[in-house]
Amino acid sequence: MIVDNALYHHGRRVPVGEGADQSLGSARVPCDPGDFQWIGIHEPSPDELQLIADTFGLHPLAVEDAGDSHQRPKLEHYGDTLFLVLKTLWYVDEEDAVETGEINMFVGADFVVTVRHGEGIDLADSRRDLEERAQVLEHGPMGVMYAICDRVVDEYERVGAALEEDVDEVEESVFSPARTDDANRIYVLKREIAEFRRAVMPLREPMRKLAMEGFDTTGVEGHVTSETATYFRDVSDHLQRVSELVDNLDVLLSTAFDAHLARISVQQNEDMRKISAGAALVVVPTLIAGIYGMNFEHMPELGWVYGYPFALVLMVGVATGLFAWFKKSGWL
Amino acid sequence: MIVDNALYHHGRRVPVGEGADQSLGSARVPCDPGDFQWIGIHEPSPDELQLIADTFGLHPLAVEDAGDSHQRPKLEHYGDTLFLVLKTLWYVDEEDAVETGEINMFVGADFVVTVRHGEGIDLADSRRDLEERAQVLEHGPMGVMYAICDRVVDEYERVGAALEEDVDEVEESVFSPARTDDANRIYVLKREIAEFRRAVMPLREPMRKLAMEGFDTTGVEGHVTSETATYFRDVSDHLQRVSELVDNLDVLLSTAFDAHLARISVQQNEDMRKISAGAALVVVPTLIAGIYGMNFEHMPELGWVYGYPFALVLMVGVATGLFAWFKKSGWL
Amino acid sequence: MIVDNALYHHGRRVPVGEGADQSLGSARVPCDPGDFQWIGIHEPSPDELQLIADTFGLHPLAVEDAGDSHQRPKLEHYGDTLFLVLKTLWYVDEEDAVETGEINMFVGADFVVTVRHGEGIDLADSRRDLEERAQVLEHGPMGVMYAICDRVVDEYERVGAALEEDVDEVEESVFSPARTDDANRIYVLKREIAEFRRAVMPLREPMRKLAMEGFDTTGVEGHVTSETATYFRDVSDHLQRVSELVDNLDVLLSTAFDAHLARISVQQNEDMRKISAGAALVVVPTLIAGIYGMNFEHMPELGWVYGYPFALVLMVGVATGLFAWFKKSGWL
Amino acid sequence: MIVDNALYHHGRRVPVGEGADQSLGSARVPCDPGDFQWIGIHEPSPDELQLIADTFGLHPLAVEDAGDSHQRPKLEHYGDTLFLVLKTLWYVDEEDAVETGEINMFVGADFVVTVRHGEGIDLADSRRDLEERAQVLEHGPMGVMYAICDRVVDEYERVGAALEEDVDEVEESVFSPARTDDANRIYVLKREIAEFRRAVMPLREPMRKLAMEGFDTTGVEGHVTSETATYFRDVSDHLQRVSELVDNLDVLLSTAFDAHLARISVQQNEDMRKISAGAALVVVPTLIAGIYGMNFEHMPELGWVYGYPFALVLMVGVATGLFAWFKKSGWL
Amino acid sequence: MIVDNALYHHGRRVPVGEGADQSLGSARVPCDPGDFQWIGIHEPSPDELQLIADTFGLHPLAVEDAGDSHQRPKLEHYGDTLFLVLKTLWYVDEEDAVETGEINMFVGADFVVTVRHGEGIDLADSRRDLEERAQVLEHGPMGVMYAICDRVVDEYERVGAALEEDVDEVEESVFSPARTDDANRIYVLKREIAEFRRAVMPLREPMRKLAMEGFDTTGVEGHVTSETATYFRDVSDHLQRVSELVDNLDVLLSTAFDAHLARISVQQNEDMRKISAGAALVVVPTLIAGIYGMNFEHMPELGWVYGYPFALVLMVGVATGLFAWFKKSGWL
């Protein structure tokens, strides 16, 4: 579905013939030097994609990739066009889960085509924000690329922060005295962090490249200035920060898991001692009862009037003594 | 066994003299510039290999490697010939097992020789598919190499997806309440993933090389264009994706294994507490029985008419109380 | 809040018009070649930052970073200005905790702007110290940068030493016979070490760059001599040392954790044996009591005058014998 | 001990004066351009080594290394001489152990000196094989170096295969129901694999160097052709394969060890449940006996004629019921 | 304390004016081209260091480092002077401990200043040895540097061998049937190995640099020949060997620790089974006693003359039977 299609002239949106905008879809709007056209698509049908590919002369292999939503992040040259794949991530609070989508971007000298898969980041919002920042739009297609990367990486930071909170909760749970099934939660979190890394890690190299002033963006050349590089350096830096954060969380989770294992062992130990102490409170009186259950003819206690209460008191006394002793030595 | 032998002219299969095709076997067909001959062999006898080696002037060390089916993936120059070793992988559903085969490929200026070991990927199919894609065949021997690599890596992705499902199953089993011998399954899966990696990892470097535009394919030179590089870049990218997937699975399995260990400990803990609680239900009544088994002369309960039922009720009552208490505190 | 604002001339502080110093805040003081102005700010408001940014022509992206206190350490060029982000660390004894702050530094040809977030290192102190070391101040803005880096890294070493002590304590606790909850402490320490590493590791590359004689500090150029490089090499070396120390502590903690796990197991083993031995001391006499509680008509002991004492002595004797045996074999 | 000493002329062994061969030992035989002399020594005395060092002008540091059998594999230039250290490995079936020896090789323009320590690979055999492969010997001293490296690496592959079998056995043992002390076997295997790696890993770099066509073999230059490089590339490739195999085995062993640990825990769990079930079969009848051992005056069962058999049947019945229940729920 | 001070002329020690030698201390002795002065200091006071720094024009930062004994190994240029920091290691048999000291070395065109901290390697011995090896001394200051590095690294090898023995002992202890607290020993050894690595690892890079023929030793230039490089290559190689040895020991210790953990589990398992078997030997006879303690009126055994002995024999018989059964099934 073609979501939006506009022409940008000196950093300002220029109305394209109303009909042309939506119905013609991917039709190429002739533009002056320095102008560029930006088409946004969401989960396109193969036909839509093909139409756009034909219009802008996109490479079949890149188009094939763009139609699929299981790419890994990458930046590639196809002739005069730059092709960028980004994973979008967002955090669904209700499920404590990280969801993933994908943005594919074709950037040429005078056009940008963005193909979005899945939900998450609303490029229409990004476009509106961007249209108000003429100084970025003035950098042309590379400015659009920057704006989208910036938006996506900002979202990564939000997800990273949410994961950090989850790790804090797990940590608290591990060290709380309650018996909790932290192994399961840690596993789920580790899995999400792995998902996160698969989105973030491969993107670092492309961002690093775009942040280098001399990076060869054949065909889009006219638009790459040292200023653009500065912008991408900022994105690259944020990406670096979020990836370090997540690496750190991963290591912390492993440590928390080990601590969880230790805690299970310690608890088993304590349980065992409690159980043994409890058992002692029963078996020792049983021994006493056994003694007075012996059938010797000459057992003076048996004839005492208060023999029975004496025996009971003895049992309770011994049990109480044991109880106090176990308490003192930390077994109960 | 020589499976097929054909001449390709401008991306089209050209009939070779009928007899020549099969019986002459490896006989070199004279060809115009731009044409090339493609011979496919399956588990050749040493004699067949030698015949072909002599015909196309292949290097003895490469021929020795091609006759053996335990090579590691690699790309090498032997004079004017490129020699590529690929591991083929396929997933056997019935056994949840990954099987491996091997394809060795000699690529010269005007010939391709493919030597296949084991089952798995049917090169005859690939050839038929390829013959319908003239635009690839037009790239000559390098086009054939691309088509086969693409086919093999596609199969890797299928195997990767199957392994992913297996890991999901293991994961579910680990976190299910049932007592399952997950250690064994995890081990087997890890072993298969190791097998997988041994096929995939060493192939990354050759694919990366072929994806570089300036890569020196001496003797095959005339056929390497920036277009071919683009094709191999696509293969390389898929390879990268599948190898990241499998690395990720490996890490997940390790985490799942740790969770399995934690679960065993937790279960032992729970069993121990259940057992102890169960024991308490027996030993406390035993103590009561012991008390009324004492032989004191003055034990008023002994003379009661309802002394015996009272004792039984006491036992059952205490046991019931304990049972309720254990239930409440989660020990039973 | 603007903390200090001064002009330095040939390594000496030059009084700036009193009013100008504080109230004008970020006003640029005209200076001769070789002189430079140093403004120190602490947790600035966005307006203060903007004022300074306008005065010295700082890049908006860098200014945005400087206003935020969650940057990762980095060194960047923005046009003629070097922008350095440092994490400050200090150790709070009472809580055994590592606290973090941040220093952002803009260094131009004739100015230094330091923006500090959080407590920790008092730059006013550093400034006073530095003002007494004319030979460092003579190196101009880069000299100030060196002095601050040196101060910050010195503090890292102090924190590293404090962590080392903490690790020593944990180690002692792990191998002491007492039952201690070392898992928790080890976790907390590991977390702090991770914090530490996040401050220290990314700083190594910037320091290494500044230590290279030929490093291009565009715009600040006039001040970078091989002598400055020597100074930064010293900082870089200390940074290397402290990061190796902390890596080492991290590994030691992991080993200590493993040892802690082993110790828990060993203790459980010993407890189990003690418990069993203790149980034996009760159940064996119980068996004896059971025997003399049997109702056979012909049991000679029952008729003995000293039968009862005999039985008691037997019980005590057997228990004592068992006790001695368990003691000898290390079970009690 | 000088084992053999011969002159090779155009790939053919040329008889050296009989006496000269053995008694003169290291005497240098004058040779035509293209000829070379090959002396083989086994565990030489310091004097023998010195004699040879003087004759061929070997560097004292290399000679010192060659006299010692605890070198690490390396390739070095000493002036005009290449010095190669190889570890030889072989597998002793009876002890399931990997043994190590060492070959030191000096290669000059017209001589090869091989110094062997320990048993294992019989260089006399290698020499005889080589003398029948004139096309290799024609490459002169570098041909000899190739042949020996090839022989040594072939042996590595045999050892690797033997270790693979051992790992398979361990794996089977870990997952067999029998209680086996796999920890010990795994440790021993890991130790042997470490030994293996110490022989193989450092050799990869020298082989890689020799496989590069442009590698500077000063003084031996005349003999290094692209053909020689091809040969060494083959050795290098086999070395790579065997080192990947062994890395893989190491990882498998670690996984097998973890599985072993899990199995111990599972077995302990099962034992504990069996024991508890067994105990229940005794303590419940004991409770029943205790009940009928109570001294109440009014216990109707006590007066029954079949009271006693009834009690016994009750005991057996309860025990049988419990037994069946435990069997069903998998505790026995 | 200035330990020694001498002038070397063509590899020979030249007497310096007696008084000058010790009392003038660091006075610079005028020397001919090719001569050099070597001053050895042990734990100098700040004043002594300053005196020497002034005499030879040493850089203040290097002098500061040399006065401190907690440097990490490094090689640095300060103007015309090379500054090398070495950690010395030695093994104290009585305590099974590795001790560390430090040697700082300033090497200029015509002087060497060695500053030693801590005990360990006696440089006076090294000097005497060196004075007898004129061919090394002839290489001038770099020859002295080589000799000291060689001495230090030799000592590393001795320490490495001692650690290897310790690891062998631990290994034996882990797999011995005795219950030993191996966790503690392994921890201590790991700590010492970490210490060792901190001394050895950072030294590899400096040694590698000195082993490169073209290494720029500004100011000491005249003395660096390809021969010197050969010497340092030898040191570098030994360093490599010892660092591989120690890495290997570290890995072995980790494996041994895991095996220790497994052994604890296995022992606990065995203990549990022994305890249970032991318990069975008591509770089963207790059940029998309980049965004959029941108060049924019609229990024929109670009236038998040999009822009591029969019961005792029954108890012993059952216990013996159980004992035999447990023995057979490996529980006792």
From TrEMBL, chains A, B, C, D, E:
Pfam families: CorA. The chain crosses the membrane at residues 275-294, 306-326. It is a multi-pass membrane protein. InterPro entries: CorA_cytoplasmic_dom (IPR045861), CorA_TM1_TM2 (IPR045863), Mg/Co-transport_prot_CorA (IPR004488), MgTranspt_CorA/ZnTranspt_ZntB (IPR002523). It is found in: Cell membrane; Membrane. It comes from the Bacteria. Mediates influx of magnesium ions. Belongs to the CorA metal ion transporter (MIT) (TC 1.A.35) family. NCBIfam families: corA. This is Magnesium transport protein CorA. It comes from Nocardioides flavus.
